[in-house]
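Our preliminary data section would be incomplete without showing what the modeling component actually yields. Below, a chain of 337 amino acids is followed by its predicted structure, encoded as tokens that our downstream tools consume directly.
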Amino acid sequence: MVHANALLTPRGRLALAQLIVDEGWPARRAAERFQTSAQTAGRWARRYRERDTSRPAVEAMADRSSRPRRSPAQTPAPLERRICHLRRTRGWGPARIGHYLGMQPSTVNRVLRRRGMPRLADVDLATRRAVRGPVVRYEHDRPGALVHVDIKKLGRIPDGGGHRVHGRQIGGRNSRLTATIRKSKHPVIGYDYVHTAIDDHSRLAYSEILPDEQATTATAFWARALAWFAAAGITVDAVLTDNGSCYRSREWAALCAAAGVRHRRTRPYRPQTNGKVERFNRTLLTEWAYARPYRSETARARALPAWLHIYNHHRHHTALGGQPPASRITNLSGQYS
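Predicted structure:
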């Protein structure tokens, strides 16, 4: 595939072929004009002569598949059907099928993939039927129908910068000095906890850096998050969290009941259920937490509100067709700033 600025795009190839065929230029001279070889010029001229005149000429200049028209060494169709039959009826893997038929397991595996057979991990062993289909992105149809909440634990940055800026030796020294100043018993500066609430439909996110993940702290964050979403015109109907102790507390349950919010929890050991906020956490680390060599934890904390504004109002989101989250919220304050 050629890039947009290449000289011999399909239209460039067409111009080259037309010079040779229609205007009678020698292939070598036309090739020099387009900075290519005479053999290449001759190939495109031949393609132009043999084109289907009922279709646009530029279509004949497009790249063709490199796949051969014939594959004499390909596994015969009856043998491929037998491989698929063994997979469906007996639930065998490539190694066992290959041993049974006297074939290489790698060849069996290619046949199964070419025929679209599901992996054994995606098949119910009792019925031999596929239990997993293609991955489909789910999304609620309006803002506030579901909000994902999670906590990301981050090591604090020592004053003067940590090992990411200075290396292990100097970063370790700064950690010890910072711990001494803060009167810690051990030279450990501890952690901060980024609490995040993200709307399922719009991906609008609200985050705070807090000192712990206790029930009181998490519940207070959720109260502020509800107020923030309400100010944006979003009424929250349900919240999805993991099974952390702070989300199983009486304080959290009382707040959700008072606000009329239904609380849902993910299956144990299945963080994929809360995938939208998990993916946001990864973006948070890449584009904010580790994006710059911060010299202190205070400097990193100061940068969070500005980054959140960029994320919500300006950053292109692939799941939203290249639009920012604010594009899905009507009359959101700061949407056009």
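The longest strand covers residues 147-155. Residues 77-122 form one domain. Preliminary results of this kind motivate Aim 1 of the renewal.
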